[in-house]
């Protein structure tokens, strides 16, 4: 980069290049928020695909319905093309809209480059402490994002999130549809696998699927509303989600050995950890949950969530934390008492996990990295007895 600057050569950030070369003339559907971006983006892309719209997408994970994280989709016709008719499929593009900074020379959030017509605001909490000094700095970036959504577009927002409400109060010139509240789009869970969808008091249909947790029901509502804005009827969206297979590393079942099930999940923020464990608890009832956590994100390693981590893990029966900074981990785990265990040796952790587990247990591994291939190591240790 220094050589490029010294020679005065042209350069461009990835998000800006994407905007100018891929997203131009597209109907962009952007999914923003602290949690759920990847899953909601995958749901939305799948609904549009199920409806025959062949969307392009760029998602920070691998949706199992597609097996790839990105594709071009329909190529948009030039805006002046006289052959473009109302019956031609619109060139939709679904993008995971990250609030992380764009580049070393552009400290705006990536999502300000995407210029969506449809935007989902899933939720908003403090994160990325290596980039943002406080929550208000993130809220300001979301405000910049909201300002560039056209008034013929739509903002789909979590009606329960006070931080998003504060962002929208800074100024909003776009129609809003809220989800998660009874005066807007909401759901009522019948069982773990059946969820009724409502707009106000009007029943829209029943979603039957295998995904767990209230957070996934909220993700589904957001995706359904955004797809509806793009012309997909709610009933079609519900039918699509009954065939949704989730995203790799989002409560992905890695295998079952001797009645012990191992899951992989990307959760690395206390709120995500809590919602993931709550969803698993509602599914397994009184069976034991053994949580294994690698505090790997920059924010986590900086100790920002030190005082919140134990509360997010209360649903687990046993907690194993892997970190090279054992003193930091022990301080964070202290409130959990004897059910918390800290390790800086991965192989020793795996061996001890294999010793204490028994048929009917559920092992949940949470990390936003590869975690040294721990999932396969645990399965192998269980197979070896």
Can you walk through the features of this model?
The chain has 2 domains: 2-241, 3-Layer(aba) Sandwich (UDP-N-acetylmuramoyl-L-alanine:D-glutamate ligase); 252-383, Mur ligase, C-terminal domain (Protein-Tyrosine Phosphatase, Chain A, Alpha-Beta Complex). The radius of gyration is 22 Å and the shape is globular. The relative contact order is 0.11. The chain has helices at 2-6, 14-23, 37-50, 135-147, 162-169, 214-229, 234-241, 270-284, 298-301, 309-312, 326-333, 346-356, 374-383, and strands spanning 27-32, 56-58, 70-71, 92-96, 101-103, 106-109, 118-121, 154-158, 176-179, 185-189, 194-199, 202-208, 252-257, 260-265, 289-293, 318-322, 340-343, 362-366. The N and C termini lie far apart (52 Å). The protein is of the alpha/beta class and 385 residues long. The strands form 4 sheets. It has a 7-stranded mixed beta sheet, covered by helices on one side.
Relevant terms:
13 helices, 2 domains, alpha/beta, 33% helix, UDP-N-acetylmuramoyl-L-alanine:D-glutamate ligase, Protein-Tyrosine Phosphatase, Chain A, 385 residues, seven-stranded mixed β-sheet
Task: Briefly say what this structure is.
This protein is an alpha/beta fold and 385 residues long.
* CATH architecture descriptor name of the largest domain: 3-Layer(aba) Sandwich
What is the general shape?
A: globular
Q: What is the C-level CATH assignment of the largest domain?
A: Alpha Beta
Main beta-sheet annotation? 7 strands, mixed
**What class do helices, strands and sheet pairing give?**
alpha/beta
Unreliable residue runs: 80-89
Tally of helical runs:
13
Number-wise, the strands total 18
CATH topology of the largest domain: UDP-N-acetylmuramoyl-L-alanine:D-glutamate ligase
CATH homology group of the largest domain = Mur-like, catalytic domain
Distance between the termini: 52 Å
